[in-house]
Amino acid sequence: MLAHMMALESPLVQAEMVEATEFPELSEQFGVSSVPHTTINRGKGNVIGAVPEANLLAEILRSIAA
Amino acid sequence: MTEFLNDNVKGQVREALAQMQHPVQVLFFGSKENCDYCNDTRQLVEEVCALSDKLSLSIYDTLSDAAVATQYHVDKTPGLVIAAKDGDEITDFGIRLAGIPAGHEFTSLIQDILLVSSRNSGLSEQTRETLQGLKEPVNLQVFVTPT
User: Fold this and answer.
1) Are B62 and B27 within 8 A, CB to CB?
2) Model confidence over B65-91: pLDDT tens digits?
3) Chain B residues with CB inside 8 Å of A35's CB?
4) Does the model's pTM come out above 0.90?
5) What value of ipTM does the predicted structure carry?
6) Are residues A19 and B99, on separate chains, in Cβ contact within 8 Å?
């Protein structure tokens, strides 16, 4: 939901909610073992669990700077 | 055909959707092959979209409507795009769901519809400012399970 809020806010942000059991190969690719698991720019960053918006934002900024 | 949503759930969804401020377009993408949940997902969103006159639904196939799927960056089926609709204009914010929105994700689907309908992210001022300053694309994929 937070990811979708960010997508609404910024034209540069795309956010897809993925049903993990229907897409096991993708889930495996990003090492998803517990949900929610957010992956940023296809593995550049990962956030496990539901986190406050500041935490997700910080990980996004870290991922694009890396 | 048996409906997924019983009268009780329909009543709750209708009540939630009564909060919609602006129209929303739901785009469904299915495929005839290798898609166990396409038919169920299509039926589910058809039932939901019938519960508000501010909701419109369009149905696409990722093979026969490949250009539309590419335009909306849909590469999984079933896939849903929740977009804004203003007159004939559809605005895609990059809000997508892959897989059937059942269980917890059904709530997410309704929340996404209300979010897009409000045209307001509800994020803090600081988060908004930081996001407005982004210079490059950010792709978020949130893995969830229905239970």
Assistant:
1) no
2) 999 999 999 999 999 999 999 999 999
3) 143-145
4) yes
5) 0.97
6) yes
